[in-house]
Predict the structure.
Amino acid sequence: MCGIIGRVGRDNAVPYILKGLECLEYRGYDSAGVAVFDEKGIIASSKTVGRLAGLREAAEKDKLNGFVGIGHTRWATHGGPSEDNAHPHFSHDRKFAIVHNGIIENSNELADTELEGVGYNSETDTEKVVHLLSKYYNGNVVETISKVISLLKGSYALGILCTDYPDTIFSTAMSSPMVAAKTADCGFICSDAGAISAYASEYYPVKNGEICVLNDKKIEFYGNDGQPIEKAAVKIEVGELTADKQGYEHYMMLEMLQQPNAVRDTILPLIKDNAICLGGVDITDDYIKNELREVVIVACGSAYHAGVVGKSLIESMGSIRASAEIASEFRYVDPLIDEHTLAVFISQSGETADTLAALRLAKQKGAKVLSIVNVSGSAIANESDNVIYTKAGREVAVATTKAYSAQLVALYALAIRLAKGNGKISSEEEKRMTHELAALPHKIQMTLDRNIEKAEIYAEQFANATDIYFIGRRLDYATALEASLKMKEISYIHSESYAAGELKHGTLSLIDPGVPVVALAADGEIFGKTYSNICEVMARGAEMLVVTTDKNKELIAEFENTFIVPDTLPQFTVSLQIVPLQLLSYYTAKKKGCDIDKPKNLAKSVTVE
Ligand code: G6P
């Protein structure tokens, strides 16, 4: 979380930094700040609580101007969102200013030992680092950084200014993303290469423990022993980061409407001659039959919900034992995995800290690692033996929609591949499934077209609710998990998802007259069971909204409020059912006047544990 950008050049760095921070706001938006060397070589700064518009005004008012500077957009960890806690932070003599992304886990310990007697201007862990720089400064910033990072535990990416070097930005990183780039007459450091793609065509990743020294003439790298190192540049993929909302009020709406393309671009490269072909992924029939004993899918948030679908399909189609695990739990339970485990990590950003740590653990335990990632060159992609890329394009809204949909189809492809390799489906069945997969983008489009107006109408009623329940069985329950998360994260209405059969074991006591309950009822095989649960909540006065497929629509003819999605194979219904519920969450949040793309307290990229 938190975004960093720094720029050195021969013109005012402030507009570039502000523009870059705009692109990085997805990483956090509790506060923002910028610091530059003024014409006297003093470090001047502006800060604001909240969004960047405030920082823009503050920087203008402060007449901030300088050729070299660093900026930060914050997701609060240590200390609330206040101006004091906003970065950059300064040493008491103002010789050093720093911006930080990550968490210094031993900051309290450092305060008691290394920094005894030092006063603080903020509650942040970051401020301890800047005082350590000041304490150990010996005239050589690289040596000083090297010493200071040897004392730090945790994750960090740092941008550092020192008044003895007013033409230079220093940076270093540990388990947090940081890149540096140099063009003919300027240079950048940044948390995300996409945010500087308008200015640079290639970048250097600043890897764990490395130190980067950047001015407008050169870029240098040092290892954590202070010795110079050579690095290879990486090409920046065409940046979509600055793409606008294309006329829509919110990125979330644009991204929901982009789902047919996201799904098409993800699935088509995985289908060849009516069969699934996972490209360079090293999963052979021999491995599936003779070595693979179980699949463990690990992820966070919506990616975990996609994993729940994957687990179900791998088991039901391939007869291979599978589980879906929340990354932040998986990594601390000493999971029983070994070289016979296929560990699948799902992540839009490719940098979620818990997912990355879980991946490292799986590797340590000898599992084969496969990641499903949207951002190429991300840490999770880089550290995985095998990668399936989702092709959702840049997703800006914090609440994922198109990336989740792309993850689902990548998992369908994996499940088919494993089932085929395990001899559980024939080539004919595979052909039927790949045809249906290829048809999904069109069916998602139909689902959007059919339900968008209805979603806006139903949202009137949902916006007044204080609690909403989503129920379903089997894959319908997996859809309920994601639908409920979408609703609560952007509308701030309390919502829960329940396996429909579990209601009677406690949750029914929460159902009062008028409480909205959304029933996911696409699963034709056990429709009768779900229908019984619908009757149970209706008997208690719930307001029902039922989601099902064309084939089953007669079965729910008695309900006034419905979302009907096109028919597809039962394995793929989540891809269609989730769409109207994303729309419903969107319109509910809109009616409530919520900040849809940037819900309170959240960030898109979660790089803290
Ligand atoms: C955040 C996002 C979610 C996402 C989760 C995991 O909470 O808001 O939309 O599902 O992180 O992120 P990842 O990038 O690993 O998919």
Residues 300-303, 347-349, 352, 355, 398, 400, 602, 604, 606 surround 6-O-phosphono-alpha-D-glucopyranose (CB under 6 Å). The mean pLDDT is 94. Residues 378 and 481 are 27 Å apart (CA to CA). The chain has 17 helices and 27 strands.
